[in-house]
What we know:
Elements: H1 23-35, H2 38-63, H3 68-80, H4 95-110, H5 117-133, H6 141-150, H7 154-178, H8 182-193, H9 200-228, H10 236-256, H11 267-285, H12 293-312, H13 324-337, E1 344-345, H14 351-355, H15 364-376, H16 378-396, E2 400-404, E3 419-423, E4 441-447
Parallel strand pairs: 1-2
Antiparallel strand pairs: 2-4, 3-4
Protein name: Glycosyltransferase RgtA/B/C/D-like domain-containing protein
Transmembrane segments: 7-26, 38-61, 68-89, 95-112, 119-147, 153-174, 181-198, 210-227, 239-257
Organism: Chloroflexus islandicus
Amino acid sequence: MLQGQPLYVAPSYDFIPLIYTPLYYYLSAPVAIATGNIMVAMRVVSLLATLVAFVALYAIARAYGASAIASLLAVGLFAAAYPITGFWFDTAKSDTLSVALLLAAIALVVSLSQERLGIVGLASILLCFAFAAKQHAILFTPFFVFHLLLQRWYRMAAIFIISVMLLFIGFVGASNWLSEGWFWFYIFTVPSAAPWLIDQLDDILGQLWADYWPLLVMLGLALAWRIRSRSWQFSSRQLSFISLVAILAGVSLWSVIKLYAYLNHLIFIAAGLALLGAKVSDDVLLHDEPVSWGQRLIHTGAIGLVVIQFAVLGYDPRSQIPAPEWVDEGYALVEELRTVPEPIFVPVAPYLLAMAGRTTHFHGSSLGDLNVLVQQEPEAKAVYQPYIDQINAAIRATRTAVLPNARWFDTTFNAERGYVCTPLNDGRPLLPPLVGVDLHLTRLCVRE
């Protein structure tokens, strides 16, 4: 973008677009121009988006009747989910921007006490902006409609649907036309080809239980409280709240079990559980003073569970600060890349080539997405396999490669093809990511 190039183009060795909508890049570009550092610019946008998400989450909790203290508790629980979501709140990724815009749209709608067409129109714009940051946001459209229908605001529900449809069709249509069809390919065709790994669901649910069991036990106490008071009727607000938590959880679980998905998709369910924590805390802790021994037991146990929940979610923030030796080792590799013969292939960290002043190329994950497409959809193979073949031919022609611990390219970069591979950094992990992925650079392969 900073070079004036289009984002969505035919795949090539030079560039394969990521499978995300473009708003995050457009917002990061002016910050990058101002700071002179692309990575810092993208992280600044993510950090600001996270702060917006905190404010929106507080507003949502308040709109559903949570006290100020419980609403702050929701923000705290969401912030404490930093490691659970793969330390994604401040990374150079589009997730937090999309979540912030989505939560802001939700906050606007659920805070309404009377029909206001302007607010609903603004919420529809924010929802489409959230989609323009990452596609998942559009899946929340049914919640907005359901909430408005629960309030018997039928005209506003119709206007919201029409607004979202017009904005969505206009944005997607214009983007697809300007990119000669490549926008649809990268935003819809490629992601939809990735299969669901249903077997992973048990592991994900087990991990969520391990991380949130105190909150889930509190939910059980709140249900016991409701049973004891014989309160079985739900208001429209309560039904709206239940549907919001359900769709936040559903979108997370639907996304995280896709092939190549990662923990960042748990951001939605983390927000839902944070809101649930606020409501449960109000139901159990902030009601009238308990009078019976059973109520006192539930009340005291809930206080302890709140404390335990934060202890379970606790983490050492120093884990997200690169050690000085890591930084030095990274810059040493950049200096080495200045001298090795081109073309150079660094599949998981092509930005190192830009730092070294060498010719860059696509990111390896994007080629992986294309490979999944042609493997899963035979009809697509005839159309897109030639692009993949050209990219693979360019990879085989490279003189130098800096490879990760994953063995994806062992059949290309080996002694039989004339490459001499030596361990980097005396065999110690080089440039390990801080987001929990076990992926780091291990070896330098050069063909003379």
